[in-house]
Amino acid sequence: MDFTFTQEQEEMRAHLDSFLKNICPDEYVEKCDNDGVPPYEAYKALCDGGWLGLIIPEEYGGTGGDAIDLAILLEETGKRFEELAMWLFRTMTWGAFAIMAHGSEDQKKFFLPKIAKGELSFAFGLTEPSSGSDAAALKTKAEAIGNDKYLINGQKVFTSGMDISDYCLVVLRTSQEDMKQKGISTFMIDTKKKGIEIKKIDTLGHRSIGTTQVFYNDVEVTKDDIIGEIGGGWKICDSCLWYERLCLSAARTGAAEACFNLALEYAKTREQFDKPIGKNQAISHKLADMKVMIELSRLLFYKFATSINANEASRHEAAILKLYTSESYKTITEHAMQIYGGYGFCMEYPIQRFFRDARLSVIGAGTSEIQRNIIAKSLGL
Ligand SMILES: Cc1cc2nc3c(=O)[nH]c(=O)nc-3n(C[C@H](O)[C@H](O)[C@H](O)COP(=O)(O)OP(=O)(O)OC[C@H]3O[C@@H](n4cnc5c(N)ncnc54)[C@H](O)[C@@H]3O)c2cc1C
Question: Are residues 280 and 303 in the same domain?
Fold first, then answer.
């Protein structure tokens, strides 16, 4: 497998590095996290720069990039601010990719040019209070009223960014006879529709954008809002998972590297017992392990991006990627906090933010236990 980047990709990475430092400096990140305010200005700058159109075909106003380009964008954004990367990822996966892969021609013509211009952002509503890991047990229903209309009733939980999104890809039960994966459909719903109530959830990390619970009370939609076939919603979620796993892993590895760089610098400059703490093997071995985890995570997600480009991505490869990169991110932030000593525990220093944000990575979008189940199943167990 060839892991060399093209010259264009190297230039894109270098451009993103300086662009992101400029639009998303450290003090801005700290303020967004402390005040619980989304990085509106930085997101707008990315929209204005055309980055939301990266994977959208040129005929719909995008730049027609591939999965490697997407991974570079998310890795570089994650290095600056994971919440900014999450906002990008949601729009590019649950908006752009879902519509590119499963939307009708009319939906493509309506949504894709607007996404490419950065005019619309998207959320994803799958999880419900009684269906988390067992996501296909969802109950929120879209009931057909006549030939054209549907009425939605129920509750979703953990719909991240719903309050700042224009549309949400909502996964709903359209048949009561077919339970689990069958009888599920996906609707692209305007978040401002009558009958939708959004409540913010207070969380340990990801405090800038965070997540919400959403109540649907007699929300009226039409069959034009359905993405793909009625009853084919589970397959759509599954196909989008490739992009979700790729984006999350790239963004979190970027964040892990930023956290590692801080810890490395601290280990070189913080002196105790008349020498830098990094001169102690207990500290330097932690940093060596962190470096190995970052290298392996990068190899895994660029390998996965290559598989997506070749149409060869598989469910168990996605699970290996999600499990390794998220567990590594969590471990790296734990090591960084230990290296920072008492200062790592202080809100004044950024390590605590990485530590809090990383804790979600082994829970959200499929827990580590569920990833291990998928990998074990692929081994015939
Ligand atoms: C901040 C945040 C943001 C999120 N964003 C979104 C979003 O935008 N959209 C969305 O739809 N969802 C989102 N989620 C939901 C997330 O994907 C779920 O929380 C996750 O899938 C786990 O579901 P649960 O919380 O209900 O835990 P549960 O499924 O109740 O699991 C609880 C524990 O039991 C374990 N467990 C469950 N089943 C098994 C099993 N079969 N084998 C072994 N262990 C098992 C789990 O691994 C876990 O440790 C978000 C969650 C959070 C916290």
Answer: yes
Which residue lies with its CA nearest to atom 11 of ligand 1? 126
User: Among candidates 285, 286, 287, 265, which has minimal Cα distance to 276?
Assistant: 265
Same domain for 178 and 109, yes or no, is no
What is d(CA 70, CA 67) in angstroms, rounded to the nearest whole number? 5
Check if 137 has its Cβ closer than 6 Å to any atom of ligand 1: no
Nearest atom in ligand 1 to the alpha carbon of residue 368 is: 47
Q: Quick check: is 146 in a domain? A: yes
Q: Are residues 147 and 222 in the same domain?
A: yes
Backbone angles phi, psi at 241, to 5 degrees: -60, -30
Read off the tokens for 115: 């996404």
Mean pLDDT across 267-280: 98
Ligand 1 contact via 372 beta carbon (within 6 Å): no
Please report the pLDDT score of residue 54 as a whole number.
97
Domain that holds residue 193: 124-233
Q: Are residues 89 and 213 in the same domain?
A: no
| Residue 1 pLDDT greater than 80, yes or no | no
How many folded domains does the chain comprise? 3
